[in-house]
Structures are given as structure tokens and as C-alpha cells.
Amino acid sequence: MKNIIETILFSLLLAGFCNATEPGDSIQEGTSISTKKIMLLQTPWSFSENAASLSFFGYDQKIGSASVYSELQDKNYRLYREGDNIFKAGFVTDGFVQYKKWNFYGNFNYFSKKEDNVKWVGVMNPYDDNPYTIGDSIGGDYSKEYFNMEGKGAYLLSNLLTFGFDVKYSTGVGAKRKDPRPENTITSFDISPALLLSLNKIKLGANFRYVSSKEDIEISTITNNTFYTFHFKGLGVYTSTPEEDDQIFISNLLGGGLQFNFNGDKISNLTEVNFYKKSTDIKRGTTFPLQVVLLEKFNTSVNSTFIYSPSEKKINRLELFFTDKHNYGHEPVVEPKLEAVNYQWSTAAKYTLYWHKENEYGFNYSFFNLIDKNRFNWGATLAGRLNSSEITYYFVPEYNQQKLNIFNLDASIEKGFQYSSGDIVFALTSGYRKGFNSSLKFVEDESLLSTVQTEMVNHDFYYYNSGLMQFGASAKIGKNISIYHSPMQVFIDAGFKALFSNLADNPKSKILEIKLGMNF
Predict the structure, then answer these.
(1) How many Å apart are CA 379 and CA 38, to the nearest integer?
(2) Beta bridge partners of residue 147, listed in sequence order
(3) Rg of the chain, C-alpha, whole Å
């Protein structure tokens, strides 16, 4: 089905190029390959959690796009539980539209993903701040599919008050076709209502957020061989069993945010504070599910965006951000007995054995010289992040502990060119990452150390601390067409990235991305 959809869309795009208006033909102005980017850069609200801010994005025309895309990653330089190669292909569409007092945004994204030769992985995402994963030592190819949808709206109740809502739904399936065979199903529902109060040059906002998500994992085999499933904890600590226990992760998130916006003649600022608590119950078994972990996550973020000397010809934007994160893993010392009435914590003491605290500071500066609301002459961005984290897993009294300090710096420069029936954007990107003042300590007791996957932990520790340089280039080419007197633009977007590290053997990685689509 996916191949049929991609073939149809590619045929439409090819027909559009072949039947496009010739240079010199006049068509109405429509959205271009840069319209959405310019709109988002011009408003401080572009990445706000407050859905009511959609009314203040400043677009006065419909902005939409649809495309098929693919991405190929040669992952020689990678995290331990990532595949050697990753291939991703999908379809995405999104758009903004105004209707009377309403402003709407929606998107839909389907993609499939294949990771070659992964090991110790039995979950859809082993690097999502949850160390309590499962896996096996056999490994194999993992195939995954995802559907992501979002609908956002804002309604102007009066000149003073705006109401908004944001609803997201995600689902995905995954499977490894080699014994032992995990089969994954994930779902997530995210809803966030919001309000904004407008007082002349000042706007005050608030939003609430609730997320419910779930991942079901079924382990099966088709041979009579005995395979071990490893149940991981923090920093490579594990237990193993030959039993084919199903596993379930059930998460609930509660949170919200507060926003303050000031719009002056020379400067516009949005400062936003977001916070949430996420609880994840991890259970084993189907008939008598045993709760083996309660993982709690507390997250607070502060973002402040400044736009200097707002004008129609220049964008001068600075973003500052800070994030504070804490994760705690609560485990029973002895698993409850199956015949107990309450299968949760009633027959076992509960201790917090996994601790993770993390702070991140960063900035993102952008400057763009505009031609009009759909095109720019040139632009540049510079972004930096400093991440500091500490993870401890307690055996009592001994422990494993990892401290990481990581610095990231990324830069890009873009140049736009216009011709009679379209436009082109070329971009060069670069990045550098390096860890410093980091440390890793394992338990010394040999019996405890035998229950730690040290190779995995050591690999990822050196991955984050080794220097990594990235260089990339991309080209976007758009051609204006008219279909039934409606202006549109078909485009092709291709990019290439190369990564170089100073790990042993100096491995290199390559990422190739290509997208074919239409702006309307």
C-alpha cells in the first residue's frame, strides 16, 4: 500500500513539473519552499505549548504542504542499541488555515523504519529516558511503522480572550523476525487546552496538558530452542529469564505551562515555563501482571524568545532555554507472589534504586534577510547546548554511577535564489559535540558486576564523550505551477550529512535524505 501511494504521488509531482507554466507566464502568488520557515521565525509563539497562540502567528493565507520522503543512515558511529543501518520512508502533510475567528493547524505523518542488526533491544525506542527496557543477545533486523496525527485550533472569543486546543494521537507497531521475537504496539493520546489574555502590548497565557501512552510487548519463538530475555535497569544492570513473559508500559503525564509575552516597537519577547510529571508502570505477565517498576519523571523547562527590531525585511531572533529533569525508578526488593490478592506492592518493600538528574542550557540565534513573506535572500543560524547529567543505580551499599558533561555547537548558512517560475535554497551545515569532565564507575563486587552489561554502558559513555564533527549540504528546488487556476509549487529537497568521530578506528557515518512534495 505504501509503495502504491508513493508511486501515485511521485507521478503527480512529475506531471506537475512537466506541465508547469513556462517562464513569463503570470500566476498568482502562492506559498513557497520558504513560506512556513519565515512565518515561524517571525513570531515568538512558533514553538509555544499554548495552542491559543495560533491566532498570533500572523499568516493571512493558507499554508500547506504534502510530500513523500526517505532517509538512509549508514550508522557506523552510533549508540550501542541502534542498528548498523537505518532506512526510513514515509508520507507527511500539514497546513495552516484561517476561517473567520478560527485558526487551525493539522498534520499527518506515516513512516516505516527498518534497523539492521540491532541487539539487546525489545522496545520501540531504547533511548527515551526509560532505562527499564528488555532485549536479547541474539539481535536481528527490526521493522517499525508509525502513524502520527495532530489537530490544533484557536478561537478568538473576544479582543481580550482566546481559547485554544491541541490534540495529538500516535500509534506504532514493530517486530523483530528472529527468535526471540518481540512484537510491539504503542499508542499515545495527548491533549492540551489553553487560554490567552490580551492586554494591549502584553499577553498572558496558560495551558494544561494530559498524555496517556502505552507500549505492549509480546515475546514469542517459533523454534524449540531456549532463549533468554534480559530485563534491563539503570546503567546496564539486568536480570535474565528463559520465560517468554509479556511486558507492558503504561504512562500518564500531567502538566501545564504559563506564558508571558511583550510586544514593543523595538523588541518582542515570549517567556514560557512548562512543567510536568510522568509516571510509568512497568508490568510483566498477562494473566497475573506483576508490577516490577514504577518510573517517575519530573520535568521543568524555561524558554525565552526575543525578536529584535521586527520588520518585513529582516528577522533577528534569539532563543534561550533551560531544562531540569529528574527520573526515579522505584523497584520491589522481592517480587510479589502470584497468589497474593494485590499483585503490585503489597508483599514487597519498595525502594528507589535508579536516580537520574539532568540540566540543559542552550541558545539558538537566527538572522535572515527577507525579500518578501515567501522568500529570503540569505540567512544564518548558530545554536549551542550544554548538557550535564548524573545517573546512579544503587545495589546498596555499592552502586554504578555515570556523570556526563556534553557541549554541542551547530551552525548553518542558507542562500536563496529566485527565478521566473520558482526559487532555490542552498544550505551548508556543520556541528561539533564533545564531552568533558565525565566519569563512569562500576560496582567492584564480582557477583554484582556479573549482572551488568558493561560493554553497552562503556560504548555509549565513550560515544557521548568522543569528539564528533558533522558537515552537511542540502538543496531545495521549487517550481510554481497552476492547477485549475490555483497557484501551487512542486519541490524536491535533497540533503547529505557526513559525521566524523575520534573513536577507535575513526568511524564515519553518512545520512542521505530526499523529499518530493507540493506546497499549496
Answers:
(1) 11
(2) 110, 171
(3) 25
122 burial type by CB count under 10 A (0-12 exposed, 13-18 middle, 19+ buried):
buried
Residue 150: partners with Cβ closer than 8 Å, 6 or more residues away: 105, 106, 107, 108, 166, 167, 168, 169
Prior bond of 397 cis (ω within 30°): yes
Residues 6+ apart with CB under 8 A from 223: 179
CA–centroid distance for 489 within its chain:
28
Contact 483, 52 (CB under 8 A): no
φ and ψ of 455, to 5 deg: -60, -45
Which residues are paired to 195 by β-bridges? 163, 206
Enter the DSSP assignment of 420: T
Instruction: Identify the pLDDT of residue 484.
Output: 78
Q: What are the phi and psi torsion angles at 454 (to 5°)?
A: -70, -30
Cell numbers for 235, please give them: 546503567
- The CA-based angle 232-235-237, given to 5 degrees, is 45
Report mean pLDDT in 10-residue bins for the chain, 520 residues: 41 38 40 90 94 90 92 87 92 93 95 94 93 92 96 94 97 92 95 95 96 95 88 94 89 97 92 98 83 94 93 91 97 60 58 96 97 92 98 93 97 93 95 96 94 95 92 95 85 94 75 94
Pairwise CA distance, residues 175 & 192, whole Å: 31
Amino acid at 138: I
- The phi, psi pair for 451, rounded to 5°, reads -105, 25
The contacts of residue 262 (CB under 8 Å, 6+ apart) are: 201, 202, 268, 269
Distance, CA of 287 to CA of 188 (rounded, Å): 24
Residue 52 near residue 509 (C-beta atoms within 8 A): no
Give the separation between CA 231 and CA 194, rounded to whole angstroms.
40
Instruction: For residue 300, give its domain range.
Output: 2-519
> At 501, which helix (H) or strand (E)?
strand 486-501
504: Cα separation from own chain's centroid: 29
Phi and psi at 36, nearest 5°, equal -65, -40
Q: Which run of H or E residues covers position 35?
A: helix 35-42
Contacting residues for 482 by C-beta, under 8 A, at least 6 apart = 21, 27, 28, 488
Output phi, psi for 127, to 5 deg.
Answer: -125, 55
The CA distances from residue 157 to 18, 37, 179, 356, in Å, are 46, 28, 58, 43
Q: Count how many domains the chain has.
A: 1
Contacts of 6 (CB under 8 A, 6+ apart): 68, 89, 91
Lateral strand order in the sheet of 229-232:
134-135, 229-232, 238-241
Which helix (H) or strand (E) segment is 17 a member of?
helix 2-18
